[in-house]
């Protein structure tokens, strides 16, 4: 019987089963030393706000401070002037403050890293903030439209033309200042995401796509609506100042320009609903993406193609690629991913490569979805 704890070597000697190996074991590669080119085009994003979102945060904080100051002035001025139009404008500024604070909160929330529960992270909180901004404006505007209608039915009110004119002039200046602060010229983005004015890039151009932050965009459109109303209030105040008998211009201006404010937010609401319903990005067509994948050498067919957005600027794609038996799966995967990134600006692409089978042509699951 052999001795416990020892074993026989190839040269006839014995060694302990628990002795160290004569040659050191190769060290396992550390995750931080692994190259990210094996499957990811970009390195792991750094924690915290990106430069683009830091700029958005500064814009929103500045505009929110301006909004609070002038909102307080309009409340005082509207009370002294007995003007519903001025109070309407102040209420819209209050809605601006609430929406901007909600946007700031969503910006902070979107910096939280992805988890096993929230695998995409918290990016969509930005879209929810934009939705809250639009809905709040619509609710406030609906109440003010009702009050304007009541004033048109009853003429038992008095307007102080001088106070109304002064307050309306200040309100126009305030909205111009906020619009200037929130205006975005499209700062570059490092992940290749697209902006509101997307244009496909030529493959390998290496250029950055312009990007407009969702929250700042919603706030900017919100302020533009308020600016239109402020201009209408200013015109009405001039008319009432020189012709007091035309005091009905106060509720009329509230009625007309509130409708304009509602219309100005309709495109933002449409885009928000498209994102939340996981629709195809507005500036990326299904057919161009499909044709790009089919143009990759070795790809015979594609199915299960899905395109959607986490935000207005964060696009995601997934698809199955059926390839020839002689094609190199790794090369096909790398080329298809590169084309989707460079031509359409997708932030994340998940592609499954499989061998082409003739039965795929008759498979119902492999058919393209119908037109909407």
UniProtKB/TrEMBL annotation:
User: Its Gene Ontology molecular function terms?
Assistant: antiporter activity; metal ion binding; zinc ion transmembrane transporter activity
Q: In its keyword annotation, does this UniProt entry include Coiled coil?
A: no
Q: What is the lineage of its organism?
A: Eukaryota, Metazoa, Chordata, Craniata, Vertebrata
Coiled-coil region: none
Q: What function is annotated for this protein?
A: Probable proton-coupled zinc ion antiporter mediating the import of zinc from cytoplasm into synaptic vesicles and participating to cellular zinc ion homeostasis in the brain.
- Spell out the family assignment given in the record's similarity comment: Belongs to the cation diffusion facilitator (CDF) transporter (TC 2.A.4) family. SLC30A subfamily.
Question: Any idea which UniProt keywords this protein has?
Answer: Antiport, Cytoplasmic vesicle, Endosome, Ion transport, Lysosome, Membrane, Metal-binding, Synapse, Synaptosome, Transmembrane, Transmembrane helix, Transport, Zinc, Zinc transport
Q: Which reaction does it catalyse?
A: Zn(2+)(in) + 2 H(+)(out) = Zn(2+)(out) + 2 H(+)(in)
Is the Metal-binding keyword given for this protein? Answer: yes
Cell compartment(s), UniProt: Cytoplasmic vesicle, Secretory vesicle, Synaptic vesicle membrane; Late endosome membrane; Lysosome membrane; Synapse, Synaptosome
Q: According to its UniProt record, where is this protein mainly located? A: membrane
Q: Which one GO biological process term can you cite for this protein? A: response to zinc ion
Give the gene that encodes this protein. SLC30A3
Report which superkingdom the organism of origin falls in: Eukaryota
Q: Which organism is it from?
A: Odocoileus virginianus (White-tailed deer)
The UniProt transmembrane annotation reads 60-84, 130-150, 162-182, 219-242
PANTHER family named among the record's database cross-references: CATION EFFLUX PROTEIN/ ZINC TRANSPORTER (PTHR11562), PROTON-COUPLED ZINC ANTIPORTER SLC30A3-RELATED (PTHR11562:SF30)
Ranges for the Cation efflux protein cytoplasmic domain?
284-356
Q: How does it sit in the membrane?
A: Multi-pass membrane protein
Looking at the record, the residues that make up the Cation efflux protein transmembrane domain are 63-277
Give positions of region: Disordered.
1-50
The protein, known as: Probable proton-coupled zinc antiporter SLC30A3
What Pfam families is this protein classified in? Answer: Cation_efflux (PF01545), ZT_dimer (PF16916)
């Amino acid at each position: 019987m052999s001795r416990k704890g020892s074993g026989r070597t190839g040269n006839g000697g014995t060694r302990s089963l628990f002795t160290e190996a004569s040659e050191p074991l190769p060290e396992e590669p550390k995750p931080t030393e692994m190259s990210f080119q094996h499957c990811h085009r970009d390195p792991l994003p750094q924690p915290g706000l990106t430069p683009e979102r830091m700029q958005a945060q500064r814009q929103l904080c500045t505009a929110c401070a301006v909004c609070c100051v002038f909102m307080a002035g309009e409340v005082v001025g509207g009370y002294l002037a007995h003007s519903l139009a001025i109070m309407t404008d102040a209420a819209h500024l209050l809605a601006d403050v609430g929406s901007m604070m909600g946007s700031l909160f969503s910006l902070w929330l979107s910096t939280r890293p992805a988890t096993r529960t929230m695998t995409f992270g918290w990016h969509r909180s930005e879209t929810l903030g934009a939705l809250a901004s639009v809905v709040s404006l619509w609710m406030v505007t609906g109440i003010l439209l009702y009050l304007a209608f009541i004033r048109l039915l009853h003429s038992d009110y008095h307007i102080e033309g001088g106070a109304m004119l002064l307050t309306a002039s200040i309100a126009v200046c305030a909205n111009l200042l906020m619009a200037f602060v929130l205006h975005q010229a499209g700062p570059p983005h490092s992940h290749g995401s697209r902006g509101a004015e997307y244009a496909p890039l030529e493959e390998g151009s290496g250029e950055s796509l312009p990007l407009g932050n969702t929250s700042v965009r919603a706030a900017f459109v919100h302020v533009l609506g308020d600016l239109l109303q402020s201009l209408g209030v200013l015109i009405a105040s001039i008319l009432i100042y020189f012709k007091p008998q035309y005091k009905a211009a106060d509720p009329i201006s509230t009625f007309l320009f509130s409708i304009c404010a509602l219309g100005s937010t309709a495109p933002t609401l449409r885009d928000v609903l498209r994102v939340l319903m996981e629709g195809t990005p507005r500036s990326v067509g299904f057919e161009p993406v499909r044709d790009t994948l089919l143009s990759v050498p070795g790809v015979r067919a594609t199915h299960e193609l899905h395109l959607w957005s986490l935000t207005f600027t964060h696009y995601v794609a997934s698809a199955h690629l059926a390839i020839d038996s002689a094609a190199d799966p790794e090369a096909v995967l790398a080329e298809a991913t590169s084309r989707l990134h460079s031509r359409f600006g997708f932030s994340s692409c998940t592609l499954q490569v499989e061998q082409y089978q003739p039965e795929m042509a008759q498979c119902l699951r492999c058919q393209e979805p119908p037109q909407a």
